[in-house]
Amino acid sequence: MKDPSRSSTSPSIISEDVIINGHSHEDDNPFAEYMWMENEEEFNRQANFLLKQFLFIAQIEEELWEEEFIERCFQEMLEEEEEHEWFIPARDLPQTMDQIQDQFNDLVISDSSSLEDLVVKSNLNPNAKEFVPGVKYLNI
Fold first, then answer.
1. Which N-terminal residues, if any, form the signal peptide (predicted)?
2. Cα-based torsion angle of the residue sequence 39, 44, 50, 55 in order, rounded to the nearest 10 degrees
3. Are 60 and 51 in contact (CB under 8 A)?
């Protein structure tokens, strides 16, 4: 039996555009798509320029991401500070000399009987030599 697709009759041409070897009949130069190679040096210069621009933009974008990340970290740190009431010197330390003196007076032991109790209950040696920083003591 004969294969109907292999008939010996010539194929009918429906349109006027005949494509032979991937090129239309109207193309004068079958190598038109490769003509850019004629100016390959200019093409390479443009490609290098575009690549440099792309790398520059990528670098700027990375710097912006880093700045945004650092800003978010600072914001989270500030929120955490507000949440936990951390020690903030500007807020928590006294500002005037009177306030410092008041705090110092609160630390002074004013009751003499409690001072004597401290001395009696102490484990320190009252006959020990006075400590002087930087001096080595010899045990004889």
1. none
2. 180
3. no
Three-state DSSP class for residue 24: strand
Full DSSP string of 29-83: -TTGGGGGGGGHHHHHHHHHHHHHHHHHHHHHHHHHHHHHHHHHHHHHHHHHHHH
* 45 and 52 Cβ atoms separated by less than 8 Å: no
Contact present, 56 and 65 (Cβ < 8 Å): no
Give the span between the Cα atoms of 30 and 63, in whole angstroms. 48
Structure confidence by residue, pLDDT tens digits, 20-44: 555 455 557 888 888 777 888 888 8
Please write the tens of the pLDDT for every residue from 94-103.
667 777 777 7
pTM for this model (two decimals): 0.33
Q: How far apart are the first and last CA of the chain?
A: 128
Distances (CA, A) of 123 to 21, 28, 110, 137: 108, 112, 22, 21
